[in-house]
Write a structure and sequence with these properties.
heterodimer, A: 112 residues, 5-stranded antiparallel β-sheet, globular, B: 115 residues, mainly beta, 13 strands
């Protein structure tokens, strides 16, 4: 089966610092990757995505880096804010199957 | 608001019972996914439908079944419920264009408690 895992289950950062959340995947055929944010009691929300033909993509305060050689994905959040506190999931799909597999999640806590 | 609607939001039932969870995807999305999220766990893929047909199956128990109707809404049926089935069940929808899958849009989930 698919294996998408996160290196750290929890992460605490000071407000204003940058956060880096990592994710490893095992399927070399994975074509499309998404980072989701899940706040307590809510469904996951899309943050940013990247396709396998790219190695970096930037959004507002967020950057996703993809290293296909080592099958590693990271999410960087700049100037982390209290509202960023949530669980972050990476998800991947070997596009041909159109099914997404999610990692366990990393709980980010922002300390004011 | 993601545009994906799930009902009921909360459901409490007893072991051995059967429940049905309902999902209405975003307007225009043909693909519907069901995920299970247990306490402090990730999202476990259960099953995917595309335009009424089963597209992919994940770790879905034989006691569970799903279908997608002509109007594209989907139902997840859970039977012979066990305590361990207590979880959040999420529905998500996506558009598939040009053979490429778009992002998943999630509903708010249905929280099932089996007593």
């Amino acid at each position: 089966g698919e294996s998408v895992g996160l290196h750290l289950p929890t992460l605490s950062v000071q407000e204003g610092d940058n956060s880096i959340i990592n994710c490893a995947y095992s399927n070399s055929a994975s074509d499309y990757f998404i980072w989701y944010k899940q706040e307590s009691g809510k469904g996951p929300q899309f943050i940013i995505d990247i396709r396998s033909n790219m190695d970096k993509r930037q959004g507002q305060r967020v950057t996703v880096l993809l290293n296909k050689t080592v099958k590693h994905l990271s999410l960087q959040i700049a100037a982390t804010q209290p509202g960023d506190s949530a669980v972050y999931f990476c998800a991947e799909t070997p596009n041909t199957g159109n099914q997404f597999y999610f990692g366990t999640g990393t709980s980010l806590t922002v300390i004011p | 608001d993601s545009g994906v609607t799930q009902t009921p939001k909360h459901l409490i039932t007893a072991t051995g019972q059967r429940v049905t969870l309902r999902c209405s995807p975003r307007s225009g999305d043909l693909s519907v996914y069901w995920y299970q999220q247990s306490l402090d766990q990730g999202l476990q893929f259960l099953i995917q439908y595309y335009n009424g047909e089963e597209r992919a199956k994940g770790n879905i128990l034989e006691r569970f079944s799903a279908q997608q109707f002509p109007d594209l809404h989907s139902e997840l049926n859970l039977s012979s419920l066990e305590l361990g089935d207590s979880a959040l069940y999420f529905c998500a929808s996506s558009v598939v264009s040009g053979g490429l899958t778009g992002e998943l849009f999630f509903g708010e989930g249905s929280r099932l408690t089996v007593l």
